[in-house]
Amino acid sequence: GLQNILFVVFLSFHLLTLTGNLLILAAVISDACLHTPMSWFLCNLLVVDLGFSSISTPKFLANLWAGIHTISLGGCTCQVFFYHFLGSTKCLLYTVMAYDRYAAICHPLWYSIIMNRKVCALLAAGTWFTSSFHATILTSLTFTLPYCRSNEVDYFLCDIFPLVKLACADTYIIETVSFTNIGVVPMACFFLMLPSYVRISISILKMQSAESWWKAASTCTSHLTVVCFFFGPCIFCNVITPMLNPLIYTLRNKEVQSAFRRLKGGPSLFKRKH
């Protein structure tokens, strides 16, 4: 049936993700030529991707195989923690990698001094520590609430806002803190990356040699691509969709047009063809 098809599809995707990340990780670790600052951050990113892809997929596959739709309290707690821990770690690593590219392209002669081993280790450790602190706060706030309503989570994994809906206490404070905390991390990362790429773009445009221009541009393309994939859905969901919703769902509605006509005292915004 449909469950068997979904099981095969998601198992294939999960195995491809694990295999690809593990192979690249093994190649980078085993080759001394790849022991560079960028490769160090890439290894951290690969570990994050391995963990992030394993937060909900194994449980989802187990539920499909067994035909059940339950999760233990401990499993739910782990999903909340690791979802925000690894998600914010990935976001911060993208920011650090943007700074690494800035140092490599804008200050090539000082690059080995700026991005020495100690700095790289501190930057990587900082991303993991900051993210663990961020996730611990959110998880602790979520699971200190009293829950006395339904135990059905209206989502495909345990996350803060679907869980908060089940609480039987005032959730205003935790929702405000969670929304602010979750929003600050990607926004801070984005605004920290932006100056790096502005400076990189200016430096690339000033290059006289076509070979140097191409080498510098190709160096940043891979990182910029994954950053766009990471932030793109956030922008689409939070900016584009809210902008289009009034046009899609309301302004084409006859009752809404009538309300606008009464409000403005003018003709309908959209006229139908007869």
Automatic annotation (TrEMBL):
Keywords, comma-separated and alphabetical: Cell membrane, G-protein coupled receptor, Membrane, Olfaction, Receptor, Sensory transduction, Transducer, Transmembrane, Transmembrane helix
Taxonomic superkingdom: Eukaryota
Entry's transmembrane regions: 6-29, 119-143, 182-202, 223-244
Domain G-protein coupled receptors family 1 profile: 20-233
Record GO cellular component, one term: plasma membrane
Cited Pfam families: 7tm_4
Coiled coil: none
Membrane topology annotation: Multi-pass membrane protein
GO molecular function per UniProt: G protein-coupled receptor activity; olfactory receptor activity
Gene3D superfamilies referenced in this protein's UniProt entry, alphabetically: Rhodopsin 7-helix transmembrane proteins (1.20.1070.10)
Cell compartment(s), UniProt: Cell membrane
Stated name of the protein: G-protein coupled receptors family 1 profile domain-containing protein
Organism: Pseudonaja textilis
